[in-house]
């Protein structure tokens, strides 16, 4: 989402909001071979349970789910790069240079700068047993922040934040690795500020065209005025496409996944049953940013614990985004229902059941409208979306408007004068993994 200003107008009336390579023949062969395997692990279908009250149980759950460690607005077409994971210098892992290069944009134009850490996070090219997906990048533990660029500057979506570099964030205790080995990304909680609060936005140095991205989080930012997101973006927005995997504002409890593209991409239906998804289409089926006021086409999750405080109350869970020849899918698993193949680093998406969201290739070729993506975390405050629905209700979790709940008529005034209210505006992330098909 280059800018969300048109989204604000849309939300006011609907309460909703947003986020080629040719098909490779050997992928089909691999998938066919994989289906012949008899070692696929079924995921358990148990209900999401509440966060345990005892510290021992939290640690036990954490240990059980932890995976094994692995040692701007102008619309025009660009050529798709060669598939595979690439370094920030534009070369992929085997040294080939793609036909395009990544640029940081989306969720607003890149108006700041980026600071770069020394090297990428841990990676491997070894295939996981009985899975067609190879783990090529893992961000986890004490080295989580290695391999990310820190965006520096004002928020492109007009939020009341200033994004800061890594040394500044560490000095301000806004980024850290906690005792559980999880990455923390927080927002400044100084009681009053005259203009903006410091916050974090990070982008992977590695890029990918096609793949499987898995993110495990136990806590995400929540509360009136917050707008967190985990998403991915390509170059020359929206030509390289944008995929919003986790996104919402204020007190929302249901996640929204959205894509934004060049003209020509659309959902094949607005009907969830026809699409084979558990979520609901919001905002229409045209995904072209230029033709929808930058809104794109979104899908809201049916799970009322997939975002915000409700997500945090169940100790979070896993989001997975699959980008392959079939299209683009987003899955959500609460903490108690994470498939065992994910925790074993041998993901089997064909066994995961109904996705939360799916944009079929029949309506939107995933290698024509998307390329050279980086994964991104950010937290802004207010901004075009959260400010635009400050006085609104009708979205799951927002039975009362933030104006009613806070007694403050506008988002910016509230953010600047209530630092303590943002004690829960932090990400706690266990890992991010990037897979590529074999």
UniProtKB/TrEMBL annotation:
Region (Disordered): 86-131
Statement: the UniProt record of this protein carries the keyword Metal-binding: no
Segments of skewed composition (Polar residues): 86-98
GO biological process: glucan catabolic process
Compositional bias annotation for Low complexity: 99-131
Superkingdom of this protein's organism: Eukaryota
Keywords: Glycosidase, Hydrolase, Signal
Record-linked InterPro entries: Beta-glucanase-like, ConA-like_dom_sf, Glycosyl_Hydrlase_16
Signal sequence range: 1-19
Gene3D superfamilies in the record: 2.60.120.200
Domain (GH16) ranges: 124-394
Family annotation (Pfam families): GH16_XgeA
UniProt KW DNA repair keyword: no
Listed name of the protein: Glycoside hydrolase family 16 protein
Organism in which the protein naturally occurs: Phanerochaete carnosa (strain HHB-10118-sp) (White-rot fungus)
């Amino acid at each position: 989402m280059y800018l969300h200003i048109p989204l604000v107008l849309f939300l006011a009336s609907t309460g909703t909001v947003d986020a080629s390579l040719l098909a490779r023949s050997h992928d089909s062969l691999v998938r066919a071979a994989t289906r012949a395997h008899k070692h696929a692990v079924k995921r358990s279908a148990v209900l999401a349970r509440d966060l345990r009250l005892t510290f021992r149980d939290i640690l036990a759950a954490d240990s059980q789910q932890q995976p094994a460690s692995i040692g701007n607005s102008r619309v025009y077409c660009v050529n798709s790069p060669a598939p595979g994971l690439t370094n920030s210098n534009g070369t992929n892992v085997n040294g080939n240079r793609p036909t395009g290069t990544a640029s940081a944009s989306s969720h607003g134009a890149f108006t700041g700068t980026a600071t770069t850490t020394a090297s990428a996070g841990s990676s491997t090219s070894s295939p996981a047993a009985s899975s067609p997906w190879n783990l090529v990048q893992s961000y986890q533990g004490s080295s989580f922040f290695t391999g990310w660029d820190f965006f520096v500057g004002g928020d492109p979506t007009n939020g009341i934040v200033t994004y800061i570099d890594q040394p500044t964030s560490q000095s301000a205790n806004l980024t850290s690795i906690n005792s559980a080995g999880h990455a923390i990304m927080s927002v400044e909680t100084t009681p009053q500020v005259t203009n903006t609060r410091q916050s974090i936005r990070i982008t992977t140095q590695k890029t990918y065209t096609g793949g499987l991205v898995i993110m495990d989080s136990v806590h995400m930012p929540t509360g009136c005025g917050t707008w967190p997101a985990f998403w991915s973006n390509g170059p020359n927005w929206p030509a390289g496409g944008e995929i919003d995997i986790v996104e919402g504002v204020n007190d929302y409890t249901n996640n929204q996944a959205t894509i934004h593209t060049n003209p020509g991409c659309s959902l094949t239906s607005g009907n969830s049953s026809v699409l084979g998804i558990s979520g609901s289409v919001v905002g229409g089926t045209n995904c072209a940013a230029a033709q929808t006021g930058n809104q794109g086409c979104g899908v809201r999750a049916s799970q009322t614990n997939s975002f915000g405080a409700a997500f945090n109350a169940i100790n979070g869970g896993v989001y997975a985004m699959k980008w392959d020849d079939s299209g683009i899918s987003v899955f959500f698993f609460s903490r108690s229902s994470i498939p065992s193949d994910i925790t074993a680093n041998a993901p089997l998406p064909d066994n995961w059941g109904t996705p939360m969201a799916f944009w079929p290739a029949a309506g939107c070729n995933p290698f024509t409208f998307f390329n050279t993506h980086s994964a991104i975390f950010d937290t802004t405050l207010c901004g075009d979306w959260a400010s635009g629905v400050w006085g609104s209700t009708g979205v799951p979790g927002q039975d009362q408007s933030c104006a009613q709940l806070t007694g403050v008529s506008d988002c910016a005034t509230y953010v600047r004068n209530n630092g303590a209210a943002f004690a829960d505006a932090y990400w706690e992330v266990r890992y991010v993994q990037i897979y590529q098909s074999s």
